[in-house]
Amino acid sequence: YSNIAMTGEEAKRKLREQGITLKEWADARGYPYYLVSRVICGTIKGNFGLSHKVAVELGMKPESNEPLQTQ
Length: 71
Description:
mainly alpha
């Protein structure tokens, strides 16, 4: 686990490199596609609740309250 957060574009690129669409990623984890899409594009910040879980799994947020380094 890295303590450097990815941007939405970086997270999307990582999925693309793995041959996974956002829809496939969301479905495999039981998340609504619209929520994953909005977290990726930054419309929803992912600070709380389900959107936070999505952001953590995408590598865009730290899992706990540990300090996060930005690039």
